[in-house]
Amino acid sequence: MRILVIGSGGREHALAWKIAQSPLVKELWATPGNPGIGRVARLLDVKGEDLEGVARAARSRAIDLVVVGPEGPLCSGLADRLERDGVPVFGPSAAAARIEGSKAFAKEVMAAAGVPTAGHAVFTELEPALAHARAHGGRIVVKADGLAAGKGVVVCQGMAEAEAALTAMLVERVHGSSGARVLLEELLEGPEASVIALADGERVRLLPAAQDHKRVADGDQGPNTGGMGAFSPTAHVTPAVEREVEERVMLPALRELARRGAPFRGALYAGLMLTPRGIRVIEFNCRLGDPETQPILMRLQGDLVPALLAAARGDLSGVTLRVDPRAAVGVVLAAEGYPGRVASGDAIAGAEADLGPDVQIFQAGTARSADGTLVSSGGRVLTVTALGADLAAARARAYDALSRIRLRGSHYRRDIGVK
Questions:
Q1: 363 - beta bridge partners?
Q2: Range 192-323 classified under CATH 2.60.40.10
Q3: What angle in degrees, to the nearest 10, is found between the helix axes of 94-101 and 103-113?
Q4: What is the pTM of this model?
Q5: Where in the chain is the domain with CATH 3.30.1490.20?
């Protein structure tokens, strides 16, 4: 098979790393990729949002399967464009990807499907939104309706925070048109977890559950980020919880999307809050998570390609996933300034060392300088991911590997996997 991976982050590096292990793969391409992905795949200089450019690249290379990593191209209709050429795509249509592209739409789907979720209200004007926030004492979650690179959510503990978040989104438009409409959700309490399923439009196969860390600093302090690290498994997601998620969350959502003429084929991500009142879905995403994918794929045994192709073709009935019983921990190394304005172009030392099969350094915000040096080029630079007999052992191995990497001004959380 000839496979093309779309994207340039740590998630896509992990996907390319896993796909490259398949004996079914004759050629592996990626676009635009990064230097780490370039070690296992041939890179093309085409952006995922360039739908026609990707379609031309797939046609000219006789690609048998396209695996789309990020949400942007999916919400823009990349899967639709490729399927017009008869190219199988792991990733949903634009209509199905709205489950991430619009949080208001996701709430509509959840309500119609009976999926348990947080109470919410939708606003486009500041004053009504402030009045709603006041009625809840400012203890509320403010969410930009559209895509905001994982940064469109503010958890508010009082009116000062709520007013600042609402003003930033509705008046200052810090997220552009994505924040022109906001959701105000009830503030739920409980541990969070990420459960991702491979979906073929009507069936699902659950991947190992994970838990990520959104806040930038230890102890869940500071602003939200795209994710500072993740671990798998999480004790909060027992086999009983997995069954409940499949039966009450994943399958009803798939049925409702199919009823609306938007069957979902790809990775359906459910962000969960495990509250004293039971499971509540915080959000749906239309793709694999980042950084959850990195530890998840470290734990997934066997060949991933048949499962991706089966989901793309709409028939997962013959697919069984095998999971390593060991734990995996992934820690993000971020550039100076992240999640604000970041420094770039700084040399990275130690990121391309071979540390054995149980430790992988997945690249994200990296590039090559003119002289071939690996340099930083984004906020989340690397995800150092390790397997271990348990979470403590995996953590120790990941942090030991991380201690060998040098990047001026970089920072990372030191408590990934502790909770």
A1: 382
A2: no
A3: 100
A4: 0.93
A5: 125-180
**Of the candidate ranges 31-35, 162-166, 250-254, 320-324, the one whose mean pLDDT is the lowest:** 162-166
Dist. CA 185–CA 117, nearest whole Å: 10
Mean pLDDT of 25-36: 98
Domain 327-407: give its CATH architecture: Alpha-Beta Complex (3.90)
Confidence at residue 147, expressed as pLDDT on a 0 to 100 scale:
86
- Two tokens, residue 377: 């080029």
157: amino acid identity, one letter: Q
CATH 3.30.1490.20 for domain 125-180, yes or no, is yes
Return d(Cα 415, Cα 216) in angstroms, integer: 11
Q: Which residues are CB-neighbours of 32 under 8 A, at least 6 positions away?
A: 8, 43, 44, 45, 46, 47, 48
Fold of 2-91: Rossmann fold (3.40.50)
User: Per residue, what are the HEC states of the chain?
Assistant: CEEEEEECCHHHHHHHHHHCCCCCCCEEEEEECCCCHHHCCEECCCCCCCHHHHHHHHHHCCCCEEEECCHHHHHHCHHHHHHHCCCCEECCCHHHHHHHHCHHHHHHHHHHHCCCECCEEEECCHHHHHHHHHHCCCEEEEEECCCCCCCCEEEEECHHHHHHHHHHHHHCCCCHHHHCCEEEEECCCCCEEEEEEEEECCCEEECCCEEECCEEECCCEEEECCCCEEEECCCCCCHHHHHHHHHHHHHHHHHHHHHCCCCCEEEEEEEEEEECCEEEEEEEECCCCCCCHHHHHHHEECCCHHHHHHHHHCCCCCCCCEECCCEEEEEEEECCCCCCCCCCCCEEECCCCCCCCCEEEEECCEEECCCCCEEECCCEEEEEEEEECCHHHHHHHHHHHHCCCEECCCECCCCCCCC
**Per-residue model confidence (pLDDT) at position 260:** 97
Residue 178: pLDDT band with limits 50, 70, 90: confident
Within the chain, all domains assigned CATH 3.90.600.10 are found at 327-407
pLDDT at 157 over 80: yes
Which residue spans of the chain are classified as CATH 3.30.470.20? 192-323
Determine if the peptide bond prior to 32 is cis (ω within 30°).
yes
- For residue 374, which amino acid is it? L
Q: Tell me the average pLDDT across 57-79.
A: 97
Of all residues in the chain, the percent with pLDDT exceeding 70 is 100
